[in-house]
Amino acid sequence: MSVLEIRDLHARVEDTEILKGVNLTLESGEIHALMGPNGSGKSTLAYVIAGHPHYEVTQGDILVDGQSLLEMEADERCKAGVFLAFQYPVAVPGVSVANFLRTAVSNVRGYTAQAAQAEGKNATIGSNLMPMREFRKELTDKMKAYNVDPSFARRYLNDGFSGGEKKRTEVLQMAMLEPKFAILDESDSGLDIDALRVVADGINKLATQDRGFLMITHYQRLLNYVTPNKVSIFHGGRIVMTGGPEVAHMLEERGYGWVEKEFGPAKSSTQSAEAVAA
Ligand code: ADP
Ligand code: MG
User: Once rounded to an integer, what is the mean pLDDT over residues 157-183?
Assistant: First the structure.
């Protein structure tokens, strides 16, 4: 069993503090939904966990099985078993889905590092890759299992993809990378009902006992198809309440207005004293 622990995490962008003491423990086998109003800092949390260089952690820690992620680059965090599906995935014209996945899988499974060791060089991505035949077979099997059209393999990553196609590709990425922890940022936004079902089916198939999910979502729509064990309300840069699936139903009924009344403004960002003085 693995544990992802977020301890008293504070982070800022430029002079703006956005995360203000996030505490969360995610174990393998758990599906934890993080719900909150727009601007509360949910995507920021996802970026900080993934190691986006734009965000500065000012306090606290993020650990996987006791090992801190903070000093690791984004690709090392991926190797440590953390996967992030972005709210707004970027298009990479010129790089096919198959090539991207072969490189990513080779890195995560250690093919690249092995080659570097054998040659006594620094590990450079692409120095050695998972054998093509093996990779192709696994990709074809997983595309079938997760309802992804085989034509996707040749298309450029996210280039001209619809919202639904991007999310399906993310499910495929997860299926190939087999992370210990997956963080999904608004995987339901902009999906029609069919795409939502495909994405939910994929998540349910991937939600095994040896994997934890942190599902960031504004609406409870996706939670009609993927049942969380825990639901937390994120507000003003921290978690203000944690409970079971009933918390999502309550939000559906009452909206976020009462959260603001109870816990103050939704917006997480506050300028630091130095920035205001400057
Ligand atoms: P959510 O995903 O919950 O909608 P975000 O994490 O995207 O929230 O944003 C949280 C807050 O951080 C917002 O108030 C937003 O304006 C602010 N923010 C995000 N990126 C930046 C940035 N680069 N510079 C300054 N403020 C930012
Ligand atoms: Mg967001």
Answer: 93
Q: What does each C-alpha distance from 184 to 45, 228, 236 come to in angstroms?
A: 11, 13, 20
Closest residue CA from atom 6 of ligand 1:
41
CB contact at 8 A, 130 and 108: no
Half-sphere CA count of 108, side-chain side, radius 13 A: 22
Closest CA to ligand 1's atom 23: 13
CB 56 within 8 A of CB 85: no
Q: Which helix (H) or strand (E) is 197 found in, with range?
A: helix 193-206
pLDDT of 274 reads 53
194 vs 28 pLDDT, higher one: 28
Q: Which residue has its alpha carbon closest to ligand 1 atom 7?
A: 43
Q: How far apart are CA 95 and CA 91, in angstroms?
A: 9
Q: Kind of pairing, strands 31-35 and 212-217? A: parallel
Average pLDDT for residues 109-115, to the nearest whole number?
77
Positions of CATH 3.40.50.300 in the chain:
1-89+178-278
How do residues 179-203 score in pLDDT, each as one tens digit?
999 999 987 777 888 888 888 999 9
pTM of the model: 0.89
- For the chain, the distance separating the N- and C-terminal CA atoms, rounded to the nearest angstrom, is 48
Question: Above pLDDT 90, what percent of the chain?
Answer: 67
Instruction: Quote the pLDDT of residue 125.
Output: 47
CB within 8 Å of 225: residues ≥ 6 apart? 196, 197, 200, 201, 204
How is domain 1-89+178-278 classified at the CATH fold level? Rossmann fold (3.40.50)
**From the CA of 98, how far away is ligand 2's center (Å)?**
28
155 SS3 class: coil
The average confidence (pLDDT) of the chain is 89
